[in-house]
Amino acid sequence: MTAAIETASAGKLPRQIPYIIGNEACERFGFYGMRNILTPFLVSTLLMYIASQGEREHMAKDVFHTFVIGVYFFPLLGGWISDRFFGKYNTILWLSLVYVLGFVCLSLFVDNPTGFYTGMLLIALGSGGIKPLVSAFVGDQFDQSNKSKAKVVYDAFYWTINFGSFFASLLMPIFLRGFGPAVAFGIPGALMFLAVVIFWAGRNKYTHVPASPPNPHSFLNVVRTALTARQAGQGRMGLAMAVLGVVLALGAFGMWLAGSLEFVPAFCLALVLVMAFGGFGAAMQLERARGAHPDEAVDGVRAVLRILIVFALVTPFWSLFDQKASTWVIQGELMTKPEWFQAAQMQALNPALVMLIIPFNNLVLYPLLRRMGIEPTALRRMGTGIAFSAVAWVVAGCLQLAIDGGDPVSIVWQVLPYALLTMGEVLVSATGLEFAYSQAPTSMKGTIMSFWMLSVTVGNLWVLLSNAAVRNEGVTSNIAQTGLSETAFLMFFFAGFAMLAALAFALYARRYPMQDHYRA
C-alpha cells in the first residue's frame, strides 16, 4: 500500500472524496431499492405457499429482519480482514463484486426460494462487509489539518445515501408492480455495478492506510490477559462474569435445539451475552493487564469498552428504525390510499426528509442552539434522536388503534411518525458515523466501525425475539387482556423500550470522556 499521492492542503477538501460519494450514492440506490421492496415481494410472491395472510406477514418480517441482521453482522468480518490483511480499498472492491453477484441471483431466482435466499446471503455479505469500511475510508482521507471538514463530508455522505435511497424507495415499488420482480431486482444490481466502477476509477487518488500487522497488544489479547491474570489476594470475579456469559450463550443455543428459537436469533443472542458479560468482566480486571501490555494498549481497551456501552444503548433505536420497512409497510397496506399508490412508497419520505433535515440542522437549528448556550454535542444529538424515535412509535401506535377500531385512516397520517423517526435517524445515525470514527484508536478504526454496525444487528435481534414471543400462547393471551391488538401492543412496547434507552443514554453521556483519534 502506498501513502497518498497528494496530501490535502491545510483546511481543503480532499479531491478524492467525490469518488467515494458517487460510489455510495449508487450502492445505496441498489441496496435500498432491493430492501424496500423485499417485504411486499415476500408477502405477495415468494411466501404465497403460506395460506394464512397473518402468518405470511409474520414470516416476511422474520425473513426481512434476519436479512438485516446479516447485513449488520458481516461488518465484523469486513472490518477484521481489512484491518489485519488487505486494507480498506481492496476489501471494499472485492466484496463489492460479491455484492453484485448477489443481485444477479435475486434477479434469476425470483420463483426459487433457495436461489433467492442465496442471493440475499451474498448481498448481506457484500453490503455488510463493506459497510464499516466505506465510512472509515472517508475518515482516512482527512488528517489534523482538515479534520474540520470531516463533519461536513460525513453529513454530505449521509445526505448522498438518502439521495440514492429516495429514488430507490419511490421507483422500485413501481417497477415491481409494472415489470415484475426480475426487473425490479435487476435495476438495483446494475446501479451496484456502476458503484464498483466509480470506486475503482479513483484508485490512484485515495489515501491508503495500510493494514495493521499482527499485534500482541491487540484488543482481544489485552482482554484475554485481563480475564486470566491472577493477582495476589484477589479473586477473579471478572473471569467468573465472562464464564457466566458463555454459559448463558450455551443456553441460547439450547433454546434453538429445543425449537423455541430459530438459529439466527439464538446465535445473535449468544453473541450479545458473550460480549456483554465478557466486556463487563474485562473492565473489572483490566488493570491486571498492565505490565504484560503497554499502558497505551490497556487505556485503548478501556476506551473501546466505553464506546461499546454507547453502542449498546443505541440498539433500541435500530429496533424501531428498521421496522419502518416491515411493520409500517404492513400497517400502510391497511390504510386508505389512492389505487396507484403503494404503502412501500411511503419509505421514500424518509430519505427525502433526511435531505431537508440535515441542512436545516446545520444551518439553522445547531447555530440557534449555540446562541442559546446549548452545544449540540454528538452524545446529546444521539440521545435526543433515540427519544424522537420513541415518540414516532407512540404516534404509529395511536394510528394502529384507530385502524383496529375500524376507522378509515388515510396513509397521509403516516407522514407524522415518519417525520419524527427521520429526525431521530439524522441525530443518531449520521452523528454515530462521525462519533465512531473519532473515538476509535488508530489500529481499531475498521473494527470499531464494525461494532457500530453490529448495534443494528442487535436492534433487529430484539425485533425477532418479540416476534417469537407473540407466537407464544401465554404471551398472546396476556396481550389480549390489555384490549390491544398484537401490532398495537408491540408498537407501544417498542416506544417504551426506546424511551428507557434514551434516559439511560443521557445518564451515561454525562460521564463519557470524549476522545480525538484523527490522524496527526
Automatic annotation (TrEMBL):
Keyword check for Protein transport: yes
InterPro entries with a match to the protein in the record: Dipep/tripep_permease, MFS_trans_sf, POT_fam, PTR2_symporter_CS
Alphabetical list of Gene3D superfamilies matching this protein: MFS general substrate transporter like domains (1.20.1250.20)
Record carries keyword Metal-binding: no
Record-linked PROSITE patterns: PTR2_1
Subcellular location: Membrane
Record-annotated membrane-spanning stretches: 29-51, 63-80, 92-110, 116-135, 156-176, 182-202, 237-257, 263-283, 303-321, 348-369, 381-403, 415-437, 449-469, 489-509
Membrane topology classification: Multi-pass membrane protein
Keywords noted in UniProt: Membrane, Peptide transport, Protein transport, Transmembrane, Transmembrane helix, Transport
PANTHER family: OLIGOPEPTIDE TRANSPORTER-RELATED
Family per similarity comment: Belongs to the major facilitator superfamily. Proton-dependent oligopeptide transporter (POT/PTR) (TC 2.A.17) family.
Protein name as it appears in the record: POT family proton-dependent oligopeptide transporter
Organism: Agrilutibacter niabensis
